[in-house]
Write a structure and sequence with these properties.
The chain has 191 residues and is α+β, with helices and mostly antiparallel strands. The protein has 2 domains: 129 residues; 41 residues, no CATH class. The protein contains 4 helices and 6 strands, in the order E-E-E-E-E-E-H-H-H-H. Strands 1-2-5-6 form a 4-stranded antiparallel β-sheet. It has a two-stranded antiparallel ribbon with strand order 3-4. A hairpin with a 5-residue loop joins strand 1 and strand 2. It is globular and about 60 Å long. The protein starts with 19 loop residues before the first strand and ends in a 10-residue tail after the last helix. 19% of the residues are buried.
Length: 191
């Protein structure tokens, strides 16, 4: 299995694994034209771990939670479901799964990460499910890129600013990619 350590410089001190978090993201195209975006989070410890109410043996997930958002091609959330298979406080944590319903009606491409906080008060949300929800816009964009459905701009469409511009370092307004491919949206850097 590839780990971050494969790509980073060697650590400067000896170390041992303390915690492991795995996140899986998958997108499915449905027969009805909608998309199911699914995210799974799994946390575990390499040694026995105990909370005030529960003990987790080595290798047994502390968190195992799944979120599914069903969206249309405009990226409107039509359905939101969550489930928790493993959690530290089973009699309490699972209650937070219902809070994801508040995401229905939000749009993944219009301030979705802010909408998570606005629509689900901190005291009602699960931080792990919220973390998964925050990954959904990128998953959606990557899914639709192959079909050219996400508005990245084209030579034929010069009136619509592509979503990517200003959204990352590569597509910064004063960068070489924008200058070359989207010159109408290029903005020279201020000195």
């Amino acid at each position: 299995m590839v780990t971050p350590s494969h790509f980073l410089p060697s650590p400067v001190a000896r170390r041992k694994l303390s915690h492991e978090r795995n996140i899986q993201l998958q997108a499915y195209e449905r027969e009805d034209g909608l998309l199911d975006l699914e995210a799974l989070i799994e946390d575990g410890k390499p040694e026995t771990f105990a909370t005030r109410t529960r003990q987790f043996d080595s290798g047994v997930p502390i968190h195992l939670m799944i979120l599914r958002l069903t969206v249309n091609r405009q990226m409107d959330v039509l359905e939101a479901r969550a489930t928790m298979q493993r959690m530290p406080f089973p009699t309490i944590c699972h209650e937070a799964t219902a809070s994801v319903q508040a995401l229905v009606g939000a749009n993944l491409l219009r301030g979705f990460r802010s909408e998570i906080s606005r629509r689900i008060p901190r005291s009602e949300r699960c931080s792990h499910l919220s973390e998964l929800a925050a990954l959904m816009p990128t998953l959606a964009v990557q899914t639709l890129m192959k079909e050219g459905e996400v508005e990245f701009g084209s030579k034929e469409d010069t009136a619509s600013r592509p979503l990517k511009i200003g959204g990352c370092h590569a597509y910064r307004e004063d960068g070489p990619l924008v200058l070359q491919y989207y010159p109408q949206w290029y903005r020279k850097a201020e000195d």
